[in-house]
UniProtKB/TrEMBL annotation:
<keyword id="KW-0812">Transmembrane</keyword>
<feature type="transmembrane region" description="Helical">
    <location>
        <begin position="130"/>
        <end position="148"/>
    </location>
</feature>
<feature type="transmembrane region" description="Helical">
    <location>
        <begin position="75"/>
        <end position="95"/>
    </location>
</feature>
<feature type="transmembrane region" description="Helical">
    <location>
        <begin position="155"/>
        <end position="174"/>
    </location>
</feature>
<keyword id="KW-1133">Transmembrane helix</keyword>
<feature type="transmembrane region" description="Helical">
    <location>
        <begin position="107"/>
        <end position="124"/>
    </location>
</feature>
<dbReference type="GO" id="GO:0016787">
    <property type="term" value="F:hydrolase activity"/>
</dbReference>
<dbReference type="InterPro" id="IPR012506">
    <property type="entry name" value="TMEM86B-like"/>
</dbReference>
<keyword id="KW-0472">Membrane</keyword>
<feature type="transmembrane region" description="Helical">
    <location>
        <begin position="186"/>
        <end position="204"/>
    </location>
</feature>
<feature type="transmembrane region" description="Helical">
    <location>
        <begin position="27"/>
        <end position="42"/>
    </location>
</feature>
<comment type="similarity">
    <text>Belongs to the TMEM86 family.</text>
</comment>
<dbReference type="GO" id="GO:0016020">
    <property type="term" value="C:membrane"/>
</dbReference>
<protein>
    <submittedName>
        <fullName>Putative membrane protein YhhN</fullName>
    </submittedName>
</protein>
<dbReference type="Pfam" id="PF07947">
    <property type="entry name" value="YhhN"/>
</dbReference>
<feature type="transmembrane region" description="Helical">
    <location>
        <begin position="49"/>
        <end position="69"/>
    </location>
</feature>
Amino acid sequence: MLFGLLALVHLGIQLLGLDDWSRPTQVLLMPALALVLVAAVRRPRERLLTLAIVALVFSWLGDTAPAFASGDVAFLLMVGFFLVAQVVYVVAFWPYRARSALYRRRALLIPYVGFVAVLVWLCAPHTGRLLVPVLLYGLILGLMAILATGLNPRVAIGGALFLVSDALIALRAFAPGWDLPQGGFWVMSTYIAAQTLIVLGLLAHERNREERTGGTGTGA
């Protein structure tokens, strides 16, 4: 309830262009979503859910830290913390890789790989000294989205939307001609939807695991 209200308020602020209120509401989003996850699952938590909480913490740092810097430093702080969040998601999803597009329905790899390749092609000429961190982030982000297909449709869609959201950020930063009208709104709406769907998908995964084990087993 609280998270949904915060999300609606923040997106409304984005649409209205009230920049002074954008950051204060944005920094509350991931803590509120993490509380949803913490409150919904009893201890001891499955490894997957614990790592998801860690990823949300680093996502929050990615939302927050750039406010304390400017220019390239602010961008690198954002990319750095979100890179760690994506690595944590990759570690969380890795045990389910055999169910993902890496091993099944490999035709699904084509749009993911193609999307990342086109994004790099559009942005790389304008990244300058940020080329290496941007490339690294793009590769890890793409891997996270692919691995997300190994859990359930909600997590898969969440991973894909995360890819879209960060692509919009990259295009705004390095290919201004490709920026959408109301770009901030679209970045944040896809980001919020991505994180929300990942959390909801992981909670569904946990419920299914408990049903299979009678609430006493320890799934992967």
